[in-house]
Amino acid sequence: MTAAPLLSVDGIVIGGSAISFEMRPGEILAVLGSNGAGKSLLLACLSGHLLAPTGTVSVNGRQPHRARCDIGVMFQHHALLRNMTVFENVALPFLVDGLVLREELEKQVLLRLQLVGCGHLAHQDVHRLSEGDKRCVALARALSGQPRLLIADEPVAALAPAKKALVEEFLAGLVGQNALAGIVMATQDVEFAGRVATHYLILEEGGHALVRREDALRDPCYKAFVSPQLS
User: CA-to-CA distance for 141 and 147, rounded, in angstroms?
Assistant: First the structure.
């Protein structure tokens, strides 16, 4: 029996092209495209932060704004609160969800920071962090609460190679161990996408293509997009 869709998209217009697809539990979708192709716009529609003028989006059968507790969002520009510490930023979604027990809150926040390699930064002021560390803290915050779907915009941008490898393994493990039902991530790093994603959504002028990883090397749209990136 086929699992019910985790994410359903029907007729959202990006760059003049209507996009429709379904994503099942256990999948990781990499949204690929050049600058200006609409990757961040699409993710904003999927997360409910922007209402698509046409088409529909559903997460676990509900509109995104009604499924906020199921969605963790990592923004392209991290959107951390500068006047708070790292710990306070990551704690915010837990507080919104009603977790106020001091010991349990501290345990959950520190666990997420440690998983992205930032446990030692818990009490640092956010404005003192490097861009790479800010991105990892933003990822930890996106996973606070109990999300089932992670929507991440450029999750490994500005990361050093060792930290990027850690995040790659972490993201794949979250879905592999069912800690998350799925991930949608926009990225320009095609090598990263190739190692982590199960599917690719390629946004380009005049249309889009949804490609499974096992079909990618035979797909003309995928090959046309990645060849210049890897040359």
Answer: 11
Residues in the chain: 231
Residues 167, 173: Cα–Cα separation, whole Å:
10
Where is mean pLDDT largest: 47-51, 73-77, 137-141? Answer: 137-141
Contact 152, 184 (CB under 8 A): yes
Three-state SS for 78-140 is CCCCCCCEHHHHHHHHHHHCCCCCHHHHHHHHHHHHHHCCCHHHCCCEHHHCCHHHHHHHHHH
Helix 131-142 crosses helix 161-176 at what angle (to 10 degrees)?
A: 10
User: Hey, how many other C-beta atoms are within 10 angstroms of the C-beta on 81?
Assistant: 12
Burial of residue 194 (CB within 10 Å: 0-12, 13-18, 19+) is middle
Q: What is the pTM of this model?
A: 0.92
* AA identity, residue 87: F
pLDDT tens for each residue of 132-191: 999 999 999 999 888 999 999 999 998 999 999 999 999 999 999 999 999 999 999 999
* Rg, the chain, Cα only: 17
Residue matched to tokens 């697809």: 21
Spatial separation of the C-alpha atoms in residues 121 and 146, rounded to whole Å: 22
With 70 as the cut, is the pLDDT of residue 101 above it?
no
CA distance 214 to 227: 17
